[in-house]
Amino acid sequence: MPLRLDVKRKLSVRSDRVKCVDIHPNEPWILVTLYNGHAHIYNHDTQQLIKTFEICDVPVRSGKFIVRKNWAVTASDDMLVRVYNYNTLERLHQFEAHSDYIRSIVVHPTQPYILTSSDDMTIKLWDWDAKWALKQTFEGHIHYVMQIAINPKDNNTFASASLDRTVKVWQLGSTQANFTLEGHEKGVNCVDYYSGGDKPYLVSGGDDRLVKIWDYQNKTCVQTLEGHSQNVGCVAFHPELPIILSGSEDGTVKLWHSNTYRLESTLNYGLERCWTIACLKGSNNVALGYDEGTMMIKLGREEPAMSMDASTGKIVWAKHCEIQQVNLKQLNIDQQLKDGEKVPLNVKEMGSCEIYPQTLSHSPNGRFVVVCGDGEYIIYTAITLRNKSYGSAMEFVWSQDSSEYAVRDGNMVKIFKNFKEKKTFKPEAGAENIFGGSLLGVRSYSGLSFYDWETTTLIRRIEIAPKTLYWSQNGELVCIATEESYYVLRYNPQAVAAATTNKELVSEDGIEDAFDALSEIPEIVRTGVWVGDCFMYTNSLNRINYYVGGEIVTISHLDRVMYLLGYVSNENRLYLGDKEMSIVSFELSLAVLEYQTAVMRKDFETADQVLPTIAKEQRTRVAHFLEKQGYRQQALAVTLDNEHKFDLALQLGNLTVCYELAVEMENEQKWLQLSELATKAGDLNLVQECLTRAQSFGSLILLASASSNKQLMSTIGEQSRKNGQFNIAFLSNFVLGKLDTCLDILIENQRIPEAAFFARTYLPSQIGRIVNLWREKLKQMNMERSAQALANPTDYENLFPGLVDTYKTEQFLKEEAKTHLARDFPTIHPNWERNPVAEMKEAEENEEFFYHPVQLKKDTKDENDDDNENFSDANESPKQVPPSQTKQTPIDPPATTHKTSTESSVISKLISAAPPSATSSSDRARSQSPMTKPVILPPTTKEKTPPPPSVPAPSAISKAASDIKPTAAAVRKTSLSDLEKELQEFDIDVDKDDVSDVEIEPSTGANKKSADEDEDLQFDDDDVDEFLRDT
């Protein structure tokens, strides 16, 4: 068909009978009113139903958007007009507009008015600013008024179609019709105005199955279009294309050329009768309503007929049939153009075209402009728009030589030279499209074929379905754009010349070496242009990119669809236009493009010459390009961005440059990156400095331990503690063996339970102090029972077997701790294989270690009577210590514990044991608490080793036990409390369960008790333990 009207389906929705459709101008919405009383809004981009209005139970025959108010207004067979907010779906107003079915609604484009027509044969004007007051009633039709339409060129006039077989034209403010158009043999169902400024036409359709075009100035019928087999229910002039649309009850929609009135196409989607058509100004979309659903189609291409001559800076476009021109050189020198902003231009009218322009393009030298459309082409001079040549053609393309061009007429391709036909040929596989450039491209069902302009011989056939082709100015590179991607090929004229003399190089598909494939890019090219060896294009994501040497560089992101026009090199600006003929520009340095082109050709001498001309703000972009090409050293010299320079220096392993930049930027991440590079290079001093500056204490610990740097490890502990990195501080001090510092760190961070267990493991002498802190913390948290349930090992030694051994081991390890040389590592037992307690006992037995118990200042005061109680084992035999051992630094004593008198009396019974016999004194001495106050015998000069501990006689032990008995009894009598009363409830006799009841076997020195007494004592201990846990 002469008009290249590609019809694409955008929306297809099944529904009840559709009576009216309307398209939103700003949102991708379509309003559909239905015969069942509902209205729907669909998103035609996503094909989803987004809003629904349940209006009434009778047909809704009309619905329109009122965009400036965010309203949707509907009219139905219950004679009511309803107004809804289409965002909130709230009904804002309703009123009875007519006394019969309402057939049509139109919205005034500028005034707060709507017009309604009805079966009551009237038309009414309503003002929503005046609370929907009735402004005027138009009477004159003698049958149903089916549709009304406002004149887009004169908003005060409108036309109406009626079943009285007439079309009337009205004026707002006048009660009588201006004139009546008669010509239909049956009722008129629909009417619409032509929106172009060149023709005062309107169109109507009726039950006589005819479509009539009227000249409303001459009041005559210009043309009658026949073709429908049933009533014509809707008609429309397309606002952008030279198309008249008509829908009929025969289920078809016909497309007629508005200039030639030729039937261009017939659409039938099988949805039964067509009732309504809606078009939108500025869009090629058309909405159709049928018995069984709604369709949205897109006609033709939205790319405007626009062309630019880059050498002269002139842009020519077609607005309908009018040719207009703008000149970029007329811009003021002082006028600074900003990227993406509209260029202020003065439009010059050049004249009217005799055909409807579908494509418009300049010749390569810019002297001529060709317009193609309606199955014809016309070549004009670019300056005066004088007709130079014309002919019949469906497509027109220029050669690289402006004097040569080709046209396609059906499957025939004609080549012209100096406006005279030179050659005609028919490709073997037919011709669907042709493309110009250095070679003549022909698309057919078998793929893309390239032909020589002079001889029309086949150069190369490629199995590809191109959408369009773009040739570079020198004819060496070509971009083949398809529906999914684009390919860049290099043309090899030398191979073609060689094939002309050697026929063996020519195959069935042409010359194989004619093209070299360079790249395949998975992007959809919308429009493109070559500048040197750089291909600039806009893609489907509305981005401006350019391709050079296999790399894609994004220039800008666009907020709407735009089309490339050309590049003006002396201004370093790229120009684009949209379908509204708005021109925008973006800066793109020619020097950058030349430099990149030289690099791709590996012409570094030229690149070095061009580099000084590149602006400083463009240097970093050039450096990124060099980096992608693998020239990192050159990129390092070119870039001015410190971040980029640092990354390049890292990749090149340049420690000096990296260090200088890291000092300048003082960035933690940069120091860490440099430390990794220095580690690979083996520069441990630099690694230490980098990690220290980055305060990466975790990595520093690894470095210090790997290099055995004790000073560094100590520094890490101090600095990390100051910086609040307590985990690192704890670890570094632990590695150094500074256990007291580790304990302080735990206490400082209120990790008291962890401190208690740490002390239990490594510093047993600190257990008492830590447990007291733990108790105090629990009391502050109102956890009194939990605090009382904590057992302090210094008070409940019987609950912690081997506690004294841990005290000894702590002192033993401190005494024998020393620094070992690295060479001794093979001979040293690792810590995990050692048993410190066993080592201590062995050293003690071998008299290599002597334990120095610690003094205990145990001032436990009763809160009631402030009586002091002493729970130390007073009867323990003292241990003699040699003078060499008495000067050792003793372990700090545990903190004292305060208990009530009642607790003291009970616990004294639980902990106190009978005085040991002579045979068990040594075991008792090993389990002695370090909190006791030992009696140190004065050393003698004759003994080098300490004598064994003295064993008291049994009689002395018995005397000591008898001395303890009355004292303990006196304490119990004076300190009877509620706690003892509760103990008595458990049948515990505090007077009987006393150390005085224990008899000493004189011969063996062992404790002697009856079986019953032993059972009672064991029972008493369990009950007291349970009681202490409960409290």
UniProtKB/TrEMBL annotation:
Compositional bias of kind Low complexity: 912-930, 953-966
Domain COPA/B second beta-propeller span(s) in chain numbering: 322-578
Signal sequence coordinates: none
Cellular component GO terms held in the UniProt record: COPI vesicle coat; Golgi membrane
Compositionally skewed regions (Polar residues) per UniProt: 897-907
Annotated compartments: Cytoplasmic vesicle, COPI-coated vesicle membrane; Golgi apparatus membrane
Region span, Disordered: 848-966, 990-1031
Pfam families linked to this entry: B-prop_COPA_B_2nd (PF04053), TPR_COPA_B (PF23953), WD40 (PF00400)
UniProt biased composition (Acidic residues): 990-1000, 1012-1025
Protein name per its UniProtKB record: Beta'-coat protein
Membrane topology: Peripheral membrane protein
GO MF annotation: an example: structural molecule activity
